[in-house]
Amino acid sequence: MQMGMKRLFIIIVILCCVLFPLSSDAKEDIYVVAVGVSDYKTIDDLLLPEQDAKDIAELYKTKTKHVILITGRYATKERILKALHDQFSRADEDDMIVFSFSGHGYQGGICPYDMSKQSDGITYQEIRSVLKQSQAKTKIIFADACFSGGLRVDSRQNSHSSDNDDSNVLLFLSSRGGESSIESPFMVNGVFTTYLIRGLRGGADDNLDRMITAKELFDFVHQGVVEKSEAKQHPVMWGNFDDTWVLMDWR
After folding, report:
1. Number of Cβ within a 10 Å radius of residue 65
2. C-beta atoms surrounding 227 within 10 Å
3. What angle do CA 50, 30, 131 make, to 5 degrees?
4. SS3 111
5. What pTM value is reported for the model?
6. Is 2 helix (H, G, I), strand (E, B) or coil?
7. Using an 8 Å Cβ cutoff, are 99 and 131 in contact?
8. Looking only at Cα atoms, what is the longest distance across the chain?
9. 150-166 as b/e: b if 16+ CB within 10 A
10. What is d(CA 210, CA 249) in angstroms, rounded to the nearest whole number?
11. Which residues is 142 bridged to in the sheet?
């Protein structure tokens, strides 16, 4: 009797393996660090960056449990760089890492809470150095900051270029290098972040396949920001990536 039950169990296990095979493709995970600074220690304050970061974090929490949110006085240079390193070092090759920043920016970098002079800022090269150490094959930087286009290594205004970057980083920046990034007391988020969130939530899904690609997101956000700002602000997308990269999958 016991031998018969044992054989029956083995047969059931074999049938389950045949009918319901384990997938060999591991599902990608997303690792996010969202930073927003509105009230700075020594430089002029802003209105909406901390809400920008909170809303970006909430969006990604619908897709992953790996979300770090840093705002206000906690967003020091040391803490931001440590969070990027600690969070992104956990990602595997098939994963995606996302760094979102909203706050002040300058030509070539972003401003942490404790910035008082340019040398206190976080340069793109410092961010890129951390991102390069991650095994993830998809690396994204969203920056809603004045002069954020200055994060680009070159000054060309094309939508993206891979000539000077070999680290598979996509930068989606709120404005050209010489432009301000607009916020309004009558809005919940900055203009760029408003359209970024709308696009990632599905507004950019031009072909209705429930996948938001890099090109779809750029086209949607660029059009929305240019129209809302009356052509005073032009987002740019740059880096070593493919137009068909899927940045958000709602399937």
Report:
1. 9
2. 11
3. 80
4. coil
5. 0.85
6. helix
7. yes
8. 82
9. bbbbeeeeeebeeeebe
10. 6
11. 100, 172
Q: How far apart are the first and last CA of the chain?
A: 47
pLDDT at 250 over 70: yes
Yes or no: say if 216 and 224 are a contact pair by the CB < 8 Å rule: no
Report how far residue 111's alpha carbon sits from residue 121's, in angstroms, rounded to the nearest whole number: 5
pLDDT at 174: 96
And the tokens for 11? 């047969």
Spatial distance between the Cα atoms of 133 and 63, rounded to a whole number of angstroms: 23
Residue positions counted in the chain: 251
Please determine, for residue 100, whether its predicted confidence score (pLDDT) is greater than 60: yes
**Which residue type is seen at 157?**
Q
225 φ, ψ (degrees, to nearest 5)? -70, -45
Segment 108-117, tens digit of pLDDT: 899 999 999 9
> What does the pLDDT read at residue 91?
98
CB burial of residue 84 (10 Å; 0-12, 13-18, 19+): buried
Tens of pLDDT along 1-57?
455 655 655 566 455 544 544 443 456 899 999 999 999 999 999 999 999 999 999
| 129 contacts: CB under 8 Å, gap ≥ 6 | none
- Phi, then psi, of 186 in degrees rounded to 5: -95, 5
Supply 71's token pair.
């705002």
Cα 218 to Cα 235: distance, rounded to the nearest angstrom:
8
- What integer pLDDT is reported at residue 241 of this predicted model? 87
